[in-house]
Each structure stands twice: as structure tokens, then as C-alpha cells.
Amino acid sequence: MRIGLIGATAIAERAIVGPAGRHDDVRVRAVAARDAGRAAEFAERNGIPRVHADYGALLEDPGIDTVYVSLHNSAHHPWAVRAARSGRHVIVEKPLCLGPDELDGIRRAALAGGVLVTEAVPTAGHAWQPAVRAMIRDGRHGRLRSVRTRIRFGVPAPGSYRDRPELGGGVFLDSAAYWLQAVQATAGLAGATGSGRALLTGPYGADREFEARLDWADGRSAELRCEVGERHLAQHEFVFETARVRLRNFLLPAAGALPLNLVVEHDDGTKKVLSFPPVAYYDSQLDRVRALLRGGAGGDGGGGDDTGEGGGAGAGELDRAGERVALMASIHRRAMCATERQE
Questions:
Q1: Where are the alpha helices (DSSP H) in the chain?
Q2: Burial class (CB in 10 A: 0-12, 13-18, 19+), 55
Q3: Whole-number Å distance between alpha carbons of 127 and 105
Q4: How many CA atoms, within 13 angstroms, populate the side-chain half-sphere of residue 259?
Q5: What are the C-alpha distances in Å from 132 to residues 98, 136, 185, 277?
Q6: I want to staple 321 with a disulfide (CB 3.0 to 4.6 A). Which of 119, 124, 291, 327 is the partner?
Q7: 128-280+303-342 placed in CATH 3.40.30.10
């Protein structure tokens, strides 16, 4: 892999530059940013040989075969499309895009370019996900009743796109992929309908608190409460008929190779801890992309019968991402419309 970076960002350093340095077959060859000085400084700091004047020039670089896009959320779609049309594989920071129409454009570009486009959700594929999926399928704790997810991020820096709705900001769009991918990989998303409620307390009217919910006809539900605050929080709880399965600090391996534990609390008061060995999310994420490009399984651990098989690994990746994007966009749209009616 010879990677070009669209965006000289902190996440590009953590998700791509660092992990790439631990592989002989991966090189970061070029970078471009809106600020040429920032791109040059980024390249010097990370040993990247070429700095391009703009994103378009980077896409003309014959020395790259893969592009990583880490811009504000509303820019993911146009640059993913342009990168795919240029014949490059594309890794896009979550969320992949902001709606089904944008997803269709990315899908067409990927097919036309004959390339892989994948959404970077670093939590995808961790071993806890098939472990929970097995609990649901074999019924050892009875039927799954609900999934409850809590996420709290730090207060955005002044001027950050995360507080700019027109740039795809807001805490829900920043959090939804973690929640939806976890539900998709364990319980599946087929048949779910979504709803949401937003509190637009950001300085530019962005949501800094959001409650989202999925419901199924059989009575199951999945809830997300995400917010901005001083104390970081990231946890999932799976409520079964006879037990609760909790995963705390699920974003911890974004900081490096760290372990995670699933705590199973039975209704009779007994407890069991399932421990998973240390994993570094961003190293695992790059390994999954490498496997996909080799034609291996490698995907995001979608599981179930709604993973979009057919058309190869790349098609499955976009099918799974598309399912998440459709629910995310529907929930966000409904919450924003409800907020406008209240005003």
C-alpha cells in the first residue's frame, strides 16, 4: 500500500502514519491540506516524502494507490468519490458519508474505479463482538432484550467542525458509527427503525446531547445516549432475559494495545469476566484494510444475515456501511425536524 493523506490531521497520525510504520508493505507517500504550511510541517514531522498543493494534485500522484480521507464530515463524500474515480482505494474516517444519496454516489464511484472504499470504524472487528454475537445466537442467557450505549466526548476546541452543523458536526454524527456498528456486529440491524431527540446546545446550534433509539417488531431495542462533557465515557450494555453483559471503556484501545473485559452479571447474582488480550485499534484497522485488499475476509465483523454478501469483500463493506448510514441519517433527520417543530 502506498498511501496519500487528504488532511494533515491528528487522527491521520494515529490511524495511518503510526500503524503504517510497523509494516514493511505499507508506506505513507504524500499528504495534502488546505494550509500548505501545516501540510509541510506534518510531512516533516512524520517523514512523508511529498507534499501536494491541494487535494486534487494528490489524486494525480502516480506514486499512491490508496487515499485516506480525514476531513470534516460533510467533505467525506465528495473526496471519497473523487479518490475512487481516480482509481485509488479509499479509507474514509467515520462517518463514511451523511446519507443514502451520498452513499450511492460513493458506491457508483467505487464500481467505476474498480476499487475498495471502506469506512474507518476502529472498534470494528474486536473479539468481543463475535463473543456477544454467539451469546445472542445460542441463547445461553435467554433472549436479547435491549442494547444500551453511552458515549461522552470532550468539549470541542473553539472553532472545531464538531460544533458546526453545516460541516457535519454534532455529537451524534461523531458517535453513531460506534453504536450502529456494535449493534450490527452483534444483533444485526435488519428490520430496525430509528428515532432520536437532540439538544442543540453547541455555539453554532450543533447537538451536544443526543438520544437515539432503534426498535424491532419483536420488541427488541437499542439505545444510544451521547453527549459532550468533561469526563470521557464509552460503554455498551446488552440486556438479556437472565443476564446483563457490560463492556466499559470500549474506546480505550484507541490509545494503544490495551485489554478489554466483558462482564456477565447473571440474575442469580453470579458474575463472570471474559478477558480479551491487548489490541491496538488502529493497528487492527489497518490490518483489516490490508486483508480486504488481498481479497481476504478482514471486514468489520458485521455478522448475521444482513451483511451484504455478494460482489466481493468491497461490496460487503459498502453494504454494511450503507445500512449504518441509512439509519444514522434517518435518526438525525427526524431529531432535527422534531427540534425545529418545537422551536
A1: 10-12, 18-20, 36-46, 55-59, 76-85, 100-113, 128-138, 171-186, 281-293, 312-342
A2: buried
A3: 32
A4: 7
A5: 28, 6, 9, 16
A6: 119
A7: no
Q: How far is CA 148 from CA 113, 114, 254, 292, 328, in A?
A: 39, 38, 21, 31, 16
Give the Cα separation of 147 and 164 in Å (integer). 29
- Round to whole Å and give the CA distance between 323 and 320: 5
CA dihedral 19, 24, 26, 29 (to 10 degrees): 100
- Residue length of the chain: 343
Set of cell numbers at residue 43: 510531512
- For the question of whether the overall pTM of this predicted structure is more than 0.90, the answer is yes
Residue 289 grid cell: 484494510
pLDDT along the chain (343 residues), means of 10: 98 98 97 97 98 98 98 99 98 98 98 97 98 99 99 95 97 98 99 98 95 98 98 98 99 98 98 98 97 77 42 76 98 89 50
Domain ranges for the chain: 2-120, 128-280+303-342
